[in-house]
Automatic annotation (TrEMBL):
Transmembrane parts of this sequence: 21-43
Name used for this protein in its record: Putative transcriptional regulator
InterPro entries attached to this UniProt entry: LytR/CpsA/Psr_CW_biosynth, LytR_CpsA_psr
Start and end residues of each Cell envelope-related transcriptional attenuator domain: 100-241
Protein family: Belongs to the LytR/CpsA/Psr (LCP) family.
Pfam families: LytR_cpsA_psr
Keywords: Membrane, Transmembrane, Transmembrane helix
Annotated segments matching region Disordered: 58-81
């Protein structure tokens, strides 16, 4: 008697059920890919539609001309730095504060894209402003917007500013809420409206972060201390934004991008394509690769008009300028 082998094939009903399950899974996968593709296109579209303002940089820089405007007799010769230099302006648009630039940062990205140096220029730093004589650096923005502020910084550093961006403080608040708040280190305690900042680590929402970066009257060094708070906040926001909990979360990332693009204006060269290429080039950066510096000052004084000022440390400023020109800011920091 012959014995037939067991049939290894599944019954037709089981095979059909398996094919249906496979089809459903494949469909879900295609929907996921389509949704992610649409999400990426959406982000690209948002980045590409950031408002552009050519007046954020002097005409020579905005037009891509390496030479200073010959008509401007007070422009200093510029050095082509190996790195890339950004002017970042934070504007506090509270009632009665029109024209203020409360945050002035010169960002220097090294040629290798392995370090980012963010140099904070205190708003009361007393410097030469082209065509206006000596005044607080904050006045440069009030007199001539981003272009005059950029020209003032270029005269101090002798390096060309390649790109510029301005964001108002409401944007900082919205971006903070978009990422679910930030954890910031405070060097000094202070009592704010409705809450207290303790010395050490603080978890802040958007409204609290806004009060944190605005405070100066309770701090030992006034505007200098406030500048350090602002740098601590910027780093905290950058670290939180680059965390997997935000980068891999479409809802949070979309909210952050919306907040940034709704409250920012940039110079002409900061296109979506350029920003994406820079982000890819700097994808290996970590928190320790982002270094904050306060522009050198030697003490405090009083301007001829009676206003309180921060006195520029000219020798150290010249050393910092050379470091920027040679893309060797780490050597400047080592000599401090």
């Amino acid at each position: 008697m012959s014995h037939s082998l067991p049939d290894q094939a599944s019954p037709p009903r089981t095979r059909r059920r398996g094919r249906r399950i496979l089809a459903v899974l494949l469909g879900l996968a295609l929907l996921a890919v389509g949704a992610m593709g649409g999400f990426v296109l959406y982000l690209n579209n948002r980045i590409s539609h950031i408002a552009v303002d050519d007046t954020l940089l002097p005409p020579d820089a905005a037009q891509g001309n390496d030479n200073a405007d010959p008509a401007d007799e007070e422009s200093e010769p510029l050095v082509e730095s190996p790195g890339t230099n950004y002017l970042i302006i934070g504007s506090d648009a509270r009632p009665g504060d029109a024209g203020r630039s409360d945050v002035i940062i010169l960002g220097h990205v090294t040629e290798k894209r392995d370090k980012v140096y963010l140099i904070h220029f205190p708003r009361d730093l007393y410097v030469d402003i082209p065509g206006r004589g000596k005044d607080k650096i904050n006045a440069a923005y009030a007199y001539g917007g981003g272009a005059l502020l950029a020209k003032t910084l270029q005269n101090l550093t002798h390096v060309k500013i390649d790109h510029a961006a301005k964001i108002d403080f409401n944007g900082f608040q919205r971006m903070t809420d978009a990422v679910g708040g930030v954890r910031v280190y405070a060097e000094e305690a202070s009592k704010e409206s409705g809450f207290t900042i303790q010395k050490g680590w603080n978890n802040l929402n958007g409204e609290q972060a806004l009060q944190f970066v605005r405070e100066r009257y309770q701090l030992k060094e006034g505007d200098i201390s406030r500048g350090r708070r602002q740098m601590a906040f910027v780093k905290a926001l950058m670290v939180k934004t680059l965390s997997p909990g935000v980068v891999l979360n479409p809802v949070k990332l979309t909210s952050f991008i919306n907040a940034a693009t709704d409250n920012a204006v940039v110079s002409k060269g900061l296109t979506g394509k350029f920003l994406r290429s820079e982000a890819i080039a700097m994808r290996h950066l970590r928190g320790d690769d982002i270094v904050f510096i306060t522009a050198p000052f030697s003490g405090y004084g009083t301007a001829p008009n009676g206003g309180a000022i921060d006195i520029l440390d000219q020798p150290r400023m010249e050393s910092l300028a050379l470091a920027l020109q040679d893309d060797k800011v780490e050597e400047y920091l080592a000599d401090k």
